[in-house]
Amino acid sequence: MEDNHFLYALSSNNAWAGYKAHQNPHFFPKLADGQTPQILWLGCSDSRCPETTILGLQPGDVFVHRNIANIISPTDINTSAVIEYAVAHLKVKHVVLCGHTSCGGAAAALGDARVGGVLDTWLTPLKAVRYANAEVLDAIKDEKAKTTKIAELNVEAGVKVLMANVTIREAIKERGLEVHGCLFEIGCGRIRDLGLGTGKGGSKGKGGWGLDGQEDVVRGRHAQIVFRGGRGEMSVK
Ligand SMILES: [Zn+2]
After folding, report:
1. Distance from first CA to last CA of the chain, Å, rounded?
2. Cys-Cys link to 72, which of 87, 129, 146, 158 (CB 3.0-4.6 A)?
């Protein structure tokens, strides 16, 4: 079974479901009743950025759209439909666009070689970000730092598109929807608030989520995490 990852994953799921049900018999029946997520997460498809896991949250907490290099194109019907449903129907309170370090899409956009197939077309908005910021990017000699910088600039460009989205604009005006731009640092597991969108200067000016060395409590529907000095301790209710 160990050499068949699909079978391993299924048996892992079985163990997880048993553990969750044992821990809280109401967990799955409550989930089956419906969803009221507070966060819409727009992120990269990269396997190292599983939003619910890295946020320390639970099924039911985050509505998600992920694509290669977390590119937000106004004409992409997939992204637009997810935004529409999450904002207008589920009425999420936060829209989070999150890029990440070591992004393959960002690295590809910095190169001049064709990736092939549909990928070059998909990465065009990121290429546009590259050429529009050529001076800033060319000044960075370290490749890793350059990839991180274009990932940040990509989030900035994406947040601008989000802030121009009609559904999002209406929700900001009518009920105070918040839009955030973040970067997930894979090397340390932490999410940095880039201070973009509605919460310029950070999430309500906090400059990060529970990273200020102060105690901060984040409650999901099914679990809560208490951050002390940046160290997360999870207690599941
Ligand atoms: Zn990526």
Report:
1. 33
2. 158
Q: Count how many domains the chain has.
A: 1
Domain contains 105:
yes
**What phi-psi label fits residue 225: left (phi over 0), alpha (psi between -120 and 50 degrees) or beta?**
beta
Q: Is 5 a catalytic residue?
A: no
Which member of 49, 98, 103, 182 is catalytic? 103
Is this prediction's pTM over 0.90? Answer: no
Taking only the tens place, the pLDDT of each residue in 61-93 is 999 999 999 999 999 999 999 999 999 999 999
Binding site per annotation, positions for Zn(2+): 44, 46, 100, 103
Q: How far is the CA of 58 from the centre of ligand 1 (A)?
A: 22
Q: Tell me if 83 is assigned to some domain.
A: yes
- 90 C-beta neighbours (distance < 10 Å), count: 15
Q: Provide the pairing of β-strand 178-185 with 190-193.
A: antiparallel
**Domain-embedded: residue 158:** yes
Residue 65 is among the residues annotated as catalytic for this protein: no
Choosing from 65, 94, 100, 221, the catalytic residue is 100
For position 78, which CATH number holds? 3.40.1050.10
Domain that holds residue 90: 24-210
